[in-house]
Amino acid sequence: MRHFLLLSLAMVIAISACQSPQKKDQGGDNPFFSKYDTEFNVPPFEQIKPEHYMPAIDKAMTEHKAEVEAIINNKEEATFENTIVALDDAGEMLSEVMSVYYSLKSAHGTEGIMAIASEVGKKISAHSDDISLNPALFARVKDVYEQKDALKLNGEQLMLLEDTYKGFVRSGVSLAEDKKGELRQINSRLSELFNQYSTNVLKETNKFKLVIDNKEDLAGLPESAVIGAAETAKEMGLEGKWVFTTQKPSMLPFLSYADKRELREKLYKGYYMRGNNNDSLDNKKLIEEVVNLRVKKANLLGYETYADYVLEERMAKTSDKVYELLEELWNRALPVAKKEREAMQAIIDREKGGFKLASWDWWYYAEKVRKEKYDLDENEVRPYFELNNVRDGAFAVATKLFGLQFEEITGEFPKPHADAQVFKVLEADGSHKGILYMDWHPRATKKQGAWCGAFRKQSRRGGKDIPPVVTIVCNFSKPVGDKPALLSFDETTTLFHEFGHGLHQLLSDCTYSGLSGTSVPRDFVELPSQVMENWASDPEVMKEYARHYKTGEVIPDALVEKLKNSGHFNQGFATTEYLAAALLDMNYHTQKEVKSIDVNQFEEDYLNSIGLIPEIISRYKSTYFMHIFASSGYTAGYYSYIWSGVLDADAFEAFKETSLYDQSTAQSFRTNILERGGTVDAMEMYKNFRGREPKIEALLRQRGLE
User: Fold this and answer.
1) Are residues 138 and 212 in the same domain?
2) For residues 517 and 504, is the Cβ–Cβ distance under 8 A?
3) What pLDDT was estimated at residue 340?
4) Residue 660 lies in a domain
5) Which of 117, 233, 459, 585 satisfies CB 3.0 to 4.6 Å to 513 for a cystine?
6) Looking at the predicted structure, is the pLDDT value of residue 66 above 80?
7) What is the CATH number of the domain that holds 560?
8) Helix orientation angle between 155-171 and 135-145, rounded to the nearest 10 degrees
9) Pick from 272, 287, 310: which residue ends a domain?
10) Could you tell me where the DSSP H helices lie in 282-422?
């Protein structure tokens, strides 16, 4: 689907924009009203204020409408260039403004940005519908589409044409006018609900805090967690106390090491009850309305379920294919999770705990199992994974695979917020490839999780290369006391993961912005990111970047061996909690009719029906499942991580069959996958790289589920 039809979908992978060399109209001091006077044409972030967005959006929509009208009113016969390419080029200013707004709304949602979110969502939804439901515009697109066999288009041009045509059809352009009106209302209301849902989750996350004023209640916690909690308390005006939040860098160490079981329970419930407290921030009614509106939308567009509508454009194609994969893995992972439960219950019984393992106990006793079985303590590992060393390790892998160079830009340079790092990305010959921003730590204005987006996508216009401006956003452990940011190994793999998304954007080599970078099916987009995780965990690579933050000592062989031996540790839990969320997503979106939904009961009944054990809850409970209820990005698509997991495990074996940095394999991966964007069918891209379709066996071996 074209980028001008997607402006309201920005929660998981930020909306990207393409920078035109043409100068826009001057207009007061609004930085969006003139060509950016910045190095590499990055947005002048420090000049952009919340009050600039609405005037810029209004002006940009007016310009975009004029561009569309010019296409419609063109007296010449519709051609690929004057219609399809013109549409891809149209809306440059709007894409530019919205890429900044949506990216900052997720990463630095200040009061001023959040105050206009509802109005922005409504305007963008209406504007998108004005274009995608315009019959005169579609008539010209259709004229070109019906000539496609005679136009002698190359592969990328043909994909752009087909993608544009299908985008209109799937948006409802052929509906009767009264049905179009109904669809507009649904789209507008969904944009409101997405915004309210995400706002509620952010407020709930910031609202809850576990305040400890008795030092004895900190028993078991590592020094870094205690110091971090004291610093958090001081920031909140509670000096002399300790505060733990539901941000994972704060929560997970507490759940993993705090001896006070009742406090672990309190913190974990604070996390999983977000949006489910029957107050003004409750999300249950919003979820019910979203699910039912999606059923209505699917039915209007001629589909039985919303999953049918979504999956038509994915690699999976049908919900049956999704369920087939998820259920095969579920049947392998659940027995492993039960064995893990038994091992932890055995420790509880041996210690005469006198209670049954609960969900808030899992991390605590899993750490005991890890220590007992593998003699591995995460706190022993962290000193070797200092954030900047890990980042440089990821850069080094990209250099060895693809020849890329990364040069940090220091001093005066526009940044989206003070915490950001920024790098020039260069090819091996020194030519400019793009700009990469990196934002590492939690703050009250940032939503949870980790993601990669773009302030500008790669493209070519009139023979001129438009390089990308990419942003990676994470929520990693902060520096504590006199210690730098020391990552857990999970955080380390997350950094490599998001960097893989960044490479997908940076190495894109496409003509049209609507097809470049991560413009691929959702169940393919995680391949470039997840495959990078394999280098993070490889012992050979680890010894290149894992160095003690104080001494510079390379991580000892004995510790590397422990990490390697524990590679399958807790995989039953990790796979089961993920699959529970993926299956729950599918169950919501395979509903065939509008009906009353008691969200808690719906969730409980379904997860019980598939046999989820009570000691594990779904990775995301419905009321904070941002992937599927704060946007349409991963709706009926959370399965994509495991679908792409099959691809990435199989793809990495291609490297292992030669060597980790085999240049022939690396070049094939770059040219057949990373550079292609959405210009080639996803399965064809994979087969062009691997020589065959992917096999599931590599994933099973990777997770110890054989």
Assistant:
1) no
2) yes
3) 97
4) yes
5) 459
6) yes
7) 1.10.1370.40
8) 140
9) 272
10) 284-300, 306-311, 319-350, 362-374, 378-381, 387-402
Taking the C-alpha atoms of 412, 418, 421 and 423 in order, what is their torsion angle to the nearest 10 degrees? -30
Active site residue 407: no
**Whether residues 87 and 232 fall in one domain:** no
Question: Are residues 213 and 252 in contact, defined by beta-carbon separation less than 8 angstroms?
Answer: no
Domain span holding position 461: 383-513+521-565+640-703
DSSP readout, 469-538?
EEEEE--PPPPBTTB--B--HHHHHHHHHHHHHHHHHHT---S-GGGSTT-S-HHHHTHHHHHHHHHHH-
**For position 461, what pLDDT does the model report?**
83
Which of helix, strand or coil describes residue 436?
strand
* H helix runs in 7-148, sequence order: 50-72, 86-89, 92-107, 111-115, 117-132, 135-145
Number of domains in the chain: 3
Residue 706's pLDDT band (cuts 50, 70, 90): confident
Does residue 135 sit in the same domain as residue 248? no
Mean pLDDT of the chain: 94
Establish if 203 belongs to a structural domain.
no
Tell me: do 559 and 420 sit in the same domain. Answer: yes
**Which residues, in sequence order, are bridge partners of residue 460?**
465
Tokens 């919340």 belong to: 50
- Averaged over 485-506, what is the pLDDT? 97
DSSP-derived 3-state class of residue 347: helix
Q: Residue 594 falls within a domain, yes or no?
A: no
Q: Is the pLDDT of residue 82 over 70?
A: yes
Helix (H, G, I), strand (E, B), or coil: what is residue 424?
A: strand
CA–CA dist 402, 669 (Å, integer): 10
Tell me, what's the pLDDT at 633? 87
CB-based contact 143:76 (threshold 8 Å) = no
User: How far is C-alpha 31 from the chain's CA centre?
Assistant: 28
User: In Å, what is the CA distance from 558 to each residue of 380, 487, 564, 573, 660?
Assistant: 12, 19, 10, 26, 22
What pTM value is reported for the model?
A: 0.94
- Say what the pLDDT of residue 5 is: 41
Report, as an integer, the average pLDDT of 245-257.
Answer: 96
Whether residue 242 has pLDDT greater than 60: yes
Domain boundary among 131, 159, 174: 174
CA distance 620 to 428: 42
Span 593-602, average pLDDT: 98
Burial of 286 by CB count in 10 Å (0-12 exposed, 13-18 middle, 19+ buried)?
buried
- The answer to whether residue 134 scores a pLDDT higher than 80 is yes
Set 156, 288, 386, 498: catalytic member: 498
- CA dihedral 177→183→184→187, nearest 10 degrees, is -170
Cα gap 478→443, rounded to integer Å = 10
* Residue given tokens 């061996």 in the structure block: 561
536 and 421 belong to one structural domain: yes
Q: Tell me: the pLDDT tens digits for 273-325?
A: 999 999 999 999 999 999 999 999 999 999 999 999 999 999 999 999 999 99
Q: Does the pLDDT value for residue 421 go beyond 60?
A: yes
DSSP SS3 for 237: coil
pLDDT of 28 reads 62
Residue 10 banded pLDDT, cuts 50, 70, 90: very low
